[in-house]
């Protein structure tokens, strides 16, 4: 198996160095995901830029985490689920995080509709039925939200696929939130 390089700020390609330095300054460490992405500066820049754009969507932080954590579960990304479980704990209700980690229904019907729509988008590779879109809109979401779910799932493909091919080790800071796809259903 090919072992992917886990770059430090100094070993990374020149175009990735400022991005890793920024991560170091913001998080106090360079996440292993970024260290692997750094081999392809355009991937790292794209992921970070798209994250910033997704954060400007019309969805709340809870809704964005529902999209991302649902994608993490479906893509079986242990690394990303642990990272997002930690990130989400500052703004997402514990029972929502639990539901996302364990593939159980969210009590809030509108949030559950978002979770189900995200599942359907990923499982059908975006080929949604008109009925599924209509149900999502009837739950109180908009056409804009439909398109933002596409943005959020696209963002997670970048990180989920990277952690898979690079066999990204879980950062120590996320260890308390470790998650295993095999146990989550």
From TrEMBL:
MF (Gene Ontology): peroxiredoxin activity
This protein's UniProt keywords: Oxidoreductase, Peroxidase
Alphabetical list of InterPro entries matching this protein: AhpD-like, CMD-like
Segments forming domain Carboxymuconolactone decarboxylase-like: 51-108
Family annotation (Gene3D superfamilies): AhpD-like
Domain of life of the organism encoding this protein: Bacteria
UniProt xrefs under SUPFAM superfamilies: AhpD-like
PANTHER family, sorted: CMD DOMAIN-CONTAINING PROTEIN, SI:CH211-175M2.5
Protein name as it appears in the record: Alkylhydroperoxidase family enzyme
């Amino acid at each position: 198996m090919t072992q992917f390089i886990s770059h430090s700020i100094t070993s990374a390609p020149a175009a990735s160095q400022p991005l890793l330095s920024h991560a170091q300054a913001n998080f106090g460490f360079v996440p292993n995901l970024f260290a692997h992405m750094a081999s392809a500066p355009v991937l790292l820049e794209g992921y970070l830029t798209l994250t910033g754009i997704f954060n400007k969507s019309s969805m709340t932080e809870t809704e964005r985490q529902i999209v991302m954590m649902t994608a993490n579960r479906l893509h079986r990304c242990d690394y990303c689920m642990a990272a997002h479980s930690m990130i989400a704990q500052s703004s997402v209700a514990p029972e929502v995080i639990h539901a996302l980690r364990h593939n159980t229904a969210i009590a809030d019907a509108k949030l559950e509709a978002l979770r189900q729509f995200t599942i359907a988008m990923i499982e059908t590779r975006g080929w949604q039925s008109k009925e599924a879109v209509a149900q999502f809109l009837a739950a109180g979401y908009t056409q804009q939200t439909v398109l933002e779910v596409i943005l959020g799932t696209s963002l997670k493909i970048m990180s989920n696929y990277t952690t898979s091919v690079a066999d990204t080790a879980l950062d120590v800071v996320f260890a308390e939130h470790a998650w295993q796809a095999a146990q989550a259903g």
